[in-house]
Amino acid sequence: METSEESRAVNRFLDSIRAALYDIHDRLLRENRRISATTIKQIYLGKEEKQYMLVEIFRDHNNEMESLIGKGFTKGTLQRCNACKKHIEDYLEFHYKVKDIPVEDVDHQFITGFDHPSFVLDSNTLIPCGFADIKSLEQEPGASDKRSDPS
Predict the structure, then answer these.
(1) Which of 52, 62, 103, 127 has the greatest number of CB atoms lying within 10 Å of its CB?
(2) For the segment 30-87, what is each residue's pLDDT rounded down to a tens digit?
(3) pLDDT band at residue 22, thresholds of 50, 70 and 90?
């Protein structure tokens, strides 16, 4: 009798672990996060690391950039950075049907798709998009002054 009671206790414990793992899996699905056994295990063990998101990083960068206008950066540079962020948001929405992705998911397929000179949202809308925009982020401060502002 004691053995079957002990077995039931162990089974209840295993059921609670299984339920917790399914809850973590469901949460990752809702958050559009990468799902792997390692990720689920880390979260279950309380060792979850912050997941860096691509658009969030762009937003933080552009906010910092805005505070540096006149201190080595121009409004035109900020406008190009904002345009690049918008292109990435459009690309994510169009191709992946998500608002943001983890930086670790930026792979060769993502880069080559984004680097394509343009992508079509619908038959009337061509969205220019490419890493030429990102390369402008790497220019020296003031180098963007040589270009005309898009406004």
Answers:
(1) 62
(2) 887 878 898 899 889 988 777 788 999 999 999 999 999 888 888 998 999 998 899 8
(3) very high
The token pair at 58 is 């762009």
pLDDT band at 151 (very low <50, low <70, confident <90, very high): very low
Q: What is the 3-state secondary structure (H, E, C) of the chain?
A: CHHHHHHHHHHHHHHHHHHHHHHHHHHHHHCCCCCCHHHHHHHHCCCCCCCCEHHHHHHHHHHHHHHCECCCECHHHHHHHHHHHHHHHHHHHHHHCCCCCEHHHCCHHHHHHHHCCEEEEECCEEEECCHHHHHHHHCCCCHHHHCCCCC
- Tell me how far apart the alpha carbons of residues 83 and 87 are, in angstroms, rounded to a whole number: 6
Measured CA to CA in angstroms, residue 142 lies from 36, 71, 85, 90, 131 at distances of 44, 10, 20, 28, 20
Look at residue 128 and tell me whether its pLDDT is greater than 60: no
Q: Is the pTM of this model over 0.70?
A: no
